[in-house]
Amino acid sequence: MLKGRPFRSTVLLVSALGALCWGCEKKEVAEEEKVLARIGDEVITLKDFNEEISKMPPHVRRRMTRVQEKKKQLKKLVERKCMLQAAERKGLADDSTIISQVENYRARLIVQKLLGSVKKGVAPVTEEDIKEHYEKNQAQFQTRKQIKARHILIKKDEAKAKKVLKKAKAPGADFAALAKKYSQDRATKNRGGDLGSFSPGRMVRQFEDVAFSLENPGDISDTVKTPFGYHIIKLEDKKPAKPKPLAQVKVEIRRRLTSQRQKEAQEKFLEEIKSRTRLEINEDLLVEEAKPKAKPKAKPKAVPKPAEEPEEKKE
Q1: How far apart are CA 246 and CA 227, in angstroms?
Q2: Helix, coil or strand: residue 149
Q3: Considering the domain 143-239 in this protein, what is its CATH number?
Q4: DSSP string for residues in 226-276
Q5: Model pTM score
Q6: Residue ranges of the domains in the chain?
Q7: Please, which residues bridge with residue 153 across strands?
Q8: Between the CA of residue 173 and those of 215, 249, 275, what are the distances in Å?
């Protein structure tokens, strides 16, 4: 019996260690320890991969819910690491141009971060701010005036255009039917000359000036000459410019005021920095540099000496 006790203790100890190890196997491994890929001495962990995805634009990030897309992204990361290691082996990491570009990019990121902190300090735009801006700037928040019209186009024959005009202005005339019969504008002919609704800026100036000068629906213009030919215009409807409701422009006003405040805060911040910094700026040097350089004067060509005449022999 006494001899069996050490054996029993050993069995219990082994069983306990086995249970402990089994518990170790079941323990959840942290993201930073889960290796997705090894590239030489480097690894891409699950944590690295998820951080890469979190930096993507929202529309791209939404695609990363699919396993197939994640596999493609992992492949890209592995290939990027392979190329980076190859570049480093070639000594490209020490290339002066790359170092300069990296420093410039780093400087821009730092400045962006600084300006971002300035933007965050700007007071938020309130409902009262929006209402006040809307009431003071009504002219900026209006629908554009608009008309609906038809036309008949006669391309070259002014005399014919005047005959059609006479028919169009006759009592009880069907303008749409006349447009279908006489108009030479293929785009609107089969629609009875219907141009739909339009605001200023859509048509050629000569046409537009006359069309918007018509006052009442049903009014018909005289012939109007444009680069396309001779037009007869009929006004169908006219809508004046009117204020947009506040609810329709609230988002636009908030964005505008926020942007304006951020810009003012940045300018003020920059002026404060400049006032505390010793600055020396020599703009005259830029002016001098921009001046056209004087061309060096060409050296005068050497004139060859005339050949000496041989001396006459004395007799």
Answers
A1: 42
A2: strand
A3: 3.10.50.40
A4: ETTEEEEEEEEEEE---BPPHHHHHHHHHHHHHHHHHHHHHHHHHHHHHHT
A5: 0.55
A6: 29-94, 114-142+244-269, 143-239
A7: 231
A8: 19, 44, 76
